[in-house]
Amino acid sequence: MLGVQAPLKVALVAGEASGDILGAGLMQALRRHSPHIEFIGVGGPLMEAQGLTSYFPMERLAIMGLVEVLGRLPELLARRKRLIKTLIEQKPDVFIGIDAPDFNLNIELKLRQAGIKTVHYVSPSVWAWRQKRVFKIRKACDLMLTLLPFEAQFYKAHQVPVCFVGHPLADSIAMKHDPSPAREQLGLPRDAQVVALLPGSRGGEVAKLGGLFVETARLLLAEKPQLRFIIPAANAARQQQLAEIIKDMPNLPIEILAGQSQTALQACNVVLIASGTATLEAMLFKKPMIVAYKLAPTSHWLLKKMVKSPYVSLPNLLAAEMLVPEFIQDAATPEALAEAVLEQLEDGSKQIQRFAELHESIRCNASERAAQSVLQLVEFR
């Protein structure tokens, strides 16, 4: 029948948990416009719940650091080669690479050369380091979707088609929070001072930061004996890893939570946190935070040579100032972290006020805006 459009076939590839969240939100928004849409590619449980047929487990793409990736390089290259071949055979209407730029940009380049429309969702940090990647992005992408406004400005300056969509977390997390329900859920006293420890969701991050954060908790307890600590574990493997770290300190009032990172953020007074997407969540919950990060020495040395940005954490990048204290590599000592946490426990009002302003600036109904941009690209009516 004339005027009837065939169902869309959309390919997506996400490389880790944060990409799985973004992908699932985008898929849901796309389906509202095209109920019979078909999704293929690689994603996690949230994307699979939205109907994605994942070609292999998303976890195979989640690797931390520059040096660490080398041991897995043959597997990654083989998977990417097979994926490109499969997607060219499947001929989707559009391919959406979600984050994971080192993996996805090459796929986008090959698919675009094969006549398939390509979108990259979540800008790599080209404005901070390896800025020449923007030329590859211009060749590989029909459209870049950015979560943050300063990223879109960078792409416009380099003639890359771009749309700032805002951040889905800013849409899903309310502007104001009462910590009482979260504390009740976690069995925490209403009037206790609670510090949330978030050493990361990957095994490598927890190995480098878990012991450091627990030792920081021990120092904090010496100063404030009534403090309580909670550590949300991303999965069962991280839960076991964290239990091993704290088993030698049985008297510390630290509770390991199964997941529940947002509940932990809602319940706490201050967060000690690994640099990454979780810092944005902490910002959106308006929680004063201290950021720490450690990499393999060689990875850190290489990054230090290449990074142009003065900040590593998302709240500071958004604020364009050192709003949140950052402790990187050797600067991340238990003593330095404990002192910074105590300062925020004393008065975190400056961070809280700015976090509210920054939240408003990226609250744009992101998944819907991203979906409309994708549909406009493929000229779906």
Short description:
With 381 residues, the chain is of the alpha/beta class.
Low-confidence regions: none
Number of strands: 13
Structural class: alpha/beta
Strand order of the largest sheet: 3-2-1-4-5-6-7
Radius of gyration: 21 Å
Q: What share of residues is helical?
A: 40-55%
State the end-to-end distance: 15 Å
Number of helices: 17
Nearest-integer average pLDDT = 91
Topology at a glance:
Layout: E1 9-14, H1 17-33, E2 38-42, H2 45-49, E3 52-54, H3 73-90, E4 94-98, H4 101-113, E5 117-121, H5 133-140, E6 143-146, H6 149-157, E7 162-164, H7 168-172, H8 179-186, E8 194-198, H9 203-223, E9 228-233, H10 236-246, E10 254-258, H11 261-267, E11 270-274, H12 277-284, E12 289-293, H13 297-306, H14 314-319, E13 326-328, H15 334-346, H16 349-361, H17 366-377
Helix pairs in contact: 1-17, 3-4, 4-5, 8-11, 9-10, 9-15
